[in-house]
Amino acid sequence: MIIPLFVGRSKSIAALEAAMQGDKRLVLVAQKRMDVDEPVPSDLYSVGTLINLLQLLKLPDGSIKVLLEGVRRVRLQNILSTDPFLAVETSSMDERESPTQKTEALLRHVNSQFESYVRLNRKIPQETLLSIVNLDDPSRLADNIAAHVSVKVADKQRLLACANPTTRLRYLSEILHSELEILELEQNIKNEVRKQMEQSQKEYYLHEQ
């Protein structure tokens, strides 16, 4: 996928600048805890994404806005250096599984769950929904849906670390099931509150009359 990111840490900016002068490739990994300002290798997950740097824009406050394109999953093997930025050795995580009937069934089920999620969430445009549900590649479908579901970093990391598309779809189905239950509960609460407010207004008007 192609996404924008804002970068402010000095080591991250140094890595970006070095990449721009080289092959314009970086490895992005998430932190286990977001409140750590100066992460060391043990603070990072071991599976990340190899990316292409498409665009870099320096902002007035010293931070940088970058446009990135994900290429593939990679696993961190060795830390080569930590200064002026983290340099790592990685290995690719290839997807060797051939789709089965179970994969196809999971793909259809996850598609249905995502349609329900979009209907209840209403923050995802219909155009996005149509572009995703028409994907027939299990790996791409799982990754695209995961990018549009608002869940914890640990849950997304679990999906990222899974090279097997069928297993990834199963994890994603579990996440969507949980999110749908929450959204349906929120919707029920909103409906109850609206009914109570309408009843209160009706009683107020009757009282005034």
What this model shows, in words?
The chain is α+β, with helices and mostly antiparallel strands. Helix content is 50%, strand content 22%. It is built from six helices and five strands. It has helices at residues 10-21, 101-121, 126-133, 138-148, 153-160, 165-208, and strands spanning 2-7, 25-28, 47-58, 64-81, 87-92. Strands 1, 2, 3, 4 and 5 form a five-stranded antiparallel β-sheet that branches. A hairpin with a 5-residue loop joins strand 4 (64-81) and strand 5 (87-92). Helix 2 runs antiparallel to helix 3 (126-133), helix 2 (101-121) runs parallel beside helix 4 and helix 4 packs parallel to helix 6 (165-208). The longest helix has 44 residues, at 165-208.
